[in-house]
Here is the input.
Amino acid sequence: MRLNRGVVQPWWRDAVVYEIYVRSFADSDGDGVGDLEGVRSHLDHLVDLGVDALWLTPFYPSPMHDHGYDVADYVDIEPVFGDLAAFDRLLSDAHERDLRVIVDLVPNHTSNEHPWFQAALAGGPERQQYVFRPGRDGGPPNNWTSVFGGPAWTLDKDSGEYYLHLFDATQPDLEWRSPAVHEKFRTILRTWLDRGVDGFRIDVAHALYKHPDLADEPAAPVGSMMAADRPAVWDQPEVVGVYEDWRRITDSYTGDRMMVGEVFLLDARKAARYVGPSRLQQAFNFSVAKADWGAQALREVVDRGLALFDPPTWVLSNHDLPRHTTRFGGGETGRRRAVAATALLLALPGSTYLYQGEELGLEDGDVPAEARQDPIALRSGLPGRDGCRTPMPWVAQDVGHGFTTGRPWLPFGADASERAVDVQRRDETAMLATYRQLLVARRTLRPHLGNAVTWLDPAPDVLALRREGGLVCVLNTSERPVEVPCSGDVLVATQAGACVGDGSLTVPPVSTVWLREDPTHA
Ligand code: NOJ
Here is the structure.
């Protein structure tokens, strides 16, 4: 619990959560793949940065066809990432530093190597826990496609039936109409809660149930879950019941345990329905991650996020999306825009999710076709998501950039030396320093701020808002400096040159300024 404008509220309502893509964060044993011990050795980076929590992508035993989102055992650790003792050390060191830990839960599908699926193939009762169907006209049971490309069905040659997989053929979907699946996941949830985790990020939380008719659907584009809402495939009415059940479990533990759903639905109103006092504590609001650069576009998604989600959540980048530096144009322009947009979101009420490396201003790496590993690239020939998963550069002057002493599983991005952590630590004007200033200011202001947001309309191409409690945030999307009537003290500016004088604030081009208003205006 913590205090906001005199009100006690759970920590997750306004937490800044840092996503760690474990494979690419830090490798402690030289095999080229990041691991839990690597994360533990860099916890101080997160403390210096000032985040409240970290989210670890899946670290469970897995054949790694989807880099851990194909789980072969939900309650153990993949040896490449460490073991349960390493997990416990990481959790305890994180808690000692006041960092909460969220783990990734993958309930829509297992790996085809999971013993449940192996038993299902052998004809055991576990077969009811997956979606097996006879074919139609010599082909799959319906026309559904996998998000990763190709059909969503694979033939089980021994039985002559097909099994459903909305992702890779090695990721068979579970049948959530089977009570045994519910019981198994309740146990999994309790196992991790007993171990002390603070929450769960729930993978494709909207996908668990499929329409019972399994009817054909209009063709769905490949390569992005956000490409289309799929009424027969996603967001069935029964799914929210799973989270009502899990909410009773998380609420039965002390310490404000939480769940955040990855509800990838184009219609944010539908995603917001997954959240509530008896449902998920949060769902990712992906609208900002899809928004174009520009004052109007950003204002619309912020307004929608504030109106629909309680609490609001904000996401600009993650391990499935192009980094926002790249999406906003790349290079110096992309970086200026990216940090300005981040500063806007950090000024808002709600919880913000950061993705490792964005504090360095990393761009997507250009991963050559022969080095690509993402199943999207392998199944569809599209570039896929490897570009945003290139390893973290900790040290500029080192072949493995302090990430590994071995050969990294993916090549580094071209900006690794220039943007490495050690270089930025020595530079007070670096992106890393700006992120730190934003997070320190946010923490300092937190007890004074309320949730009300008022838009000020100072000039075209400028977004300005006042947050209840005296924070004013001004984003200038234009290429010219602008003057905005305001008085107070500049707390943070994402570019040099911001200043206040004679009742007006100068905001440099493509930048955001946070100002602590005179208390008389607050
Ligand atoms: C969403 C995860 O974020 C993504 O990385 C994964 O490929 C799919 N779900 C399937 O689990």
